[in-house]
Amino acid sequence: MASVQEPQRVSAADFIRGFANWRLQSAREPVVVTHHGKDAHVLISLDDYRRLDADPTDVADTANRLEQSLAGLVESIRDGVILIDPQWRILAANPAVCDMLERSCADLIGAPLTTAVPRIEGSLLAQHIVRLIDHRERFSGEVPDIFRPRQWLRVDLVPAPVGGALVLRDVSDALNDFAANDARQALLAAVEVEGDIGHARISVREAVEAANDTLLEMLGVDAAAIRRVRFSALLAVGHRGAFAEGLEELFRSGQPVRLASQIVTRDGDATDVTLTIAEVRGPYASDGAVVMVTRRPI
User: How large is the C-alpha radius of gyration of the chain?
Assistant: First the structure.
């Protein structure tokens, strides 16, 4: 059993002579000042004194205000929050999760979680909730089809004094974007295997940022030779104006543009091609375009 450490003691005379030192000591622990060998005074820090002087009702009021502010925070966040007890009964639900379930919060309070969200029963998430309640084990991950088919939720399971909390965010759009990007990558891979379609990625100022091997072979150059070159400079002079107009129309309307054109090789030969230009759209603005190049039949 740990022993209680005795406070430092100093006589009144020594305390007066070394006041500066004892004042610093009292910031870390109380200093007892003795008079004729008996404890007479205690020097403590201002923070310790204020804590001693605090009104217990003020402490309770502060705790209540903190609890109310936390409840208000949960109410206002965009993530859905469900608080459950060890029997999986819903103790609280914020407006965001009620909107996800398309039910009133009053209807959810007191209902079993598996009744309010039937798809949880028998799912992998149910096993994580068991570990949350029994072992206070946290979990974070993307889970499909909990509220409705083809919907993905980001789920965080967090231990709580009364049981546990489920924090839910709909991430379907983000995961669909990942899937669409995978599909685009697969399409580009198929284009490369085909071998007859050239393509280049250009900036909004039409500078070439990347080109595939088919286009480089059409031009008779290597990648370094055309990097940062304006794409229109690769075309026959008579077709450059039409490309610039087509690019401007693309950025204005967002609709792909198709042009008959001619591309000029390193040796100066002009090859009849069809250009298809599609915009690459970033989160806030255009990131440039992709130009597909195919030879036109003679």
Answer: 36
Whole-angstrom distance, CA of residue 117 vs CA of residue 108: 10
d(CA 118, CA 116): 6
Q: What are phi and psi of 114, to 5 degrees?
A: -70, -20
Same-fold call for 8-53 versus 72-170: no
Question: Cβ(88)–Cβ(113) under 8 Å?
Answer: yes
Which tens digits make up the pLDDT trace of 10-57?
888 888 888 878 888 887 888 888 888 888 888 888 777 777 766 555
**Annotated domain spans of the chain:** 8-53, 72-170, 175-295
Pick the CATH number of 8-53 from 3.40.1620.10, 3.30.70.360, 3.40.50.2300, 3.40.50.410: 3.40.1620.10
User: Which residue, 222, 220, 215, 296, is CA-closest to 259?
Assistant: 296
Q: What is the pLDDT of residues 173-196, one digit of tens each?
A: 765 665 556 556 666 666 666 557
What pTM did the predictor assign? 0.48
Fold of 175-295: Beta-Lactamase (3.30.450)
Residues 292 and 298: their CA atoms lie apart, in Å, by: 19
Q: What mean pLDDT is predicted for residues 100-127?
A: 89
User: How confident is the model over 44-97, as pLDDT tens digits?
Assistant: 887 777 777 665 555 455 555 655 555 555 666 788 899 999 999 998 888 888
- Count other Cβ atoms within 10 Å, centred on residue 165: 18
Q: What are phi and psi of 272, to 5 degrees?
A: -70, 125
The CATH homologous superfamily of the domain defined by 72-170: PAS domain (3.30.450.20)
